[in-house]
Design brief:
Heat Shock Protein 90, alpha+beta, 8-stranded mixed β-sheet, 6-stranded mixed β-sheet, Ribosomal Protein S5, domain 2, 10 helices, 14 strands
């Protein structure tokens, strides 16, 4: 007879869970900027619902000398009465509004893996209290590296490495949330490479098109605003410089030189119930002579959710007949569907049926048509090269008999000159050449080349 136990099971989380949620989750140091931007734009979105006249922005400051990074936004902030509870939640999020990007409650942990200390400062509108949470990341790493702490549980470790406080502040309309990373270091200090960070943010972050460089940006914005409920762009400032998407009217190609974007193709992707699961655009190239050069920040169809990129430029390579064909085009797929959500790393989608439907739709609607066009254009160019080579050969072959005719005409001219002092003009020579070669389809090309060097 089975004996029932009255003791309630207890859940205990070990300290290495925190390691997995920090250094184990964010191996790319630049990804932490994406996480903080994601939280910042969510906060701004919640504020936009209430007011539309404010100038919202996210400011990022990199200081490689002091090894300091700050990410500041003027979204809604956190009220002092709720700040400690919200900032202490890990793996639990209070974001329930549809369309928000962060929903797992772990984005704030991104900077912990790369810093000695992390400060969270926030203030809500019309309050005179600033809330501050401080993380001792160096102590965290030391604790994880000592075997004697193996019996320490998650909550005990959390209490030992964090501190929360309130600070009086001037009462006013200002509201903010700021993350400050101190003692920051990363592999080869990539996180302080301004140009690298700028390029990363221009591709990943929900920033606007630069209309002077990309004349189709305005039409794309209008289309996406009409099709999507939550399409917005945001002012993101890096060390005083506003960031824009990198798209331009010209693309640099591997064949040398540039190709023009002559237009935009808009599309929708639907599921089996004919519901729109995503929509987007891709540029129509004028020549399609080779792929866009490797390292170009615009190549490939990019996938975005909440206007933040998922994965990288190669995410949908497998939807083309050849993976390299994706690098022939520029474009974006914007996902907005309840069952199609980015995973925690934001390098792909959560694995479910909707993910398969999405990739199948990309292949059918985008990958296959573009692949066919690339192959067709390649075939036409190949046939054209063969035809031109044959035409050149025909011209060369036709020149030899022309030289014979020319020599005969010169001989006749000498006879006429000896008897009558009359000379044959150049026009009469050409008339004779045409008369002799009027069956040749390339007579004009032949004569042009011949007259340059008739000897």
């Amino acid at each position: 007879m089975e004996k029932k136990l009255n003791q309630e099971p207890s859940f205990k989380a070990g300290i290495y869970l925190l390691e997995n949620l920090t250094s184990g989750m964010y191996t790319d140091p630049l990804a932490i900027l994406r996480e903080y931007i994601q939280n910042g734009v969510d906060s701004i979105d919640l504020t936009i619902v209430k007011e539309t006249n404010s100038q919202f922005e996210i400011r990022i400051e990199l200081d490689p000398i002091e090894r300091r990074i700050s990410i500041w936004d003027n979204g809604q902030g956190i009220p002092a009465a709720l700040a400690q509870e919200i900032l202490s939640n890990i793996g639990s999020s209070n974001k329930t509004t549809p369309g928000l990007r962060g929903f797992r409650g772990i984005g704030r942990l991104g900077g912990i893996a790369f810093s000695d200390k992390v400060l969270f400062r926030t203030k809500a509108e019309n309050e005179n209290v600033e809330s501050i949470q401080e993380w001792d990341c160096r102590k965290l790493r030391e604790s994880l590296g000592k075997h004697k702490y193996e019996s320490l549980f998650f909550n005990d470790l959390f209490q030992s490495i964090t501190a929360f406080s309130h600070k009086n502040s001037k009462k006013g309309e200002e509201r903010y949330f700021e993350v400050t990373l101190l003692g920051v270091s990363s592999f080869r200090n990539y996180i302080f490479d301004i140009n690298r960070v700028k390029r990363y943010l221009s591709q990943v972050a929900p920033v606007p098109f630069k209309f002077n460089d990309f004349s189709y940006g305005y039409d794309i914005d209008k289309y996406l605003q009409r099709k999507l409920n939550n399409y917005r762009t945001y002012n993101i400032i890096l060390n005083g410089e506003k960031i824009y998407k990198p798209y331009r009217d010209k693309v640099k190609i591997t064949k040398g030189g540039f190709d023009n974007i002559k237009g935009i193709n808009f599309f929708e992707l639907q599921n089996e119930q004919n519901e729109m699961i995503s929509c987007g655009w891709y540029g129509l190239r004028e020549q399609m002579l080779g792929s866009i050069i490797k390292g170009d920040d615009t190549s490939g169809i990019r996938v975005r959710a909440g206007n933040i990129m998922i994965g990288d430029e190669h995410l949908v390579d497998g939807c083309f007949r050849e993976h390299r064909f994706n690098s022939y085009v520029i474009g974006e797929i914007h996902v907005e569907f309840e069952d199609l959500n980015p995973n925690s790393r934001r390098d792909d989608f959560v694995d479910n049926k909707s993910k398969s439907i999405f990739y199948n739709a990309v292949e059918r609607k985008i990958g296959l048509p573009i692949s066919k066009e690339i192959r067709l254009r390649s075939k036409i160019r190949s046939e054209s090269r063969v035809k031109n080579a044959k035409s050149k050969e025909t011209v060369e072959q036709s020149i030899e008999p022309l030289k014979i005719v020319y020599k005969e005409l010169i001989a006749d001219q000498r006879k006429v000159s000896e008897n009558t002092s009359e000379t044959l003009s150049k026009s009469r020579i050409l008339e004779a050449l045409f008369r002799e070669c009027n069956d040749c389809p390339k007579v004009t090309d032949v004569l042009d080349k011949f007259m340059k060097n008739p000897s």
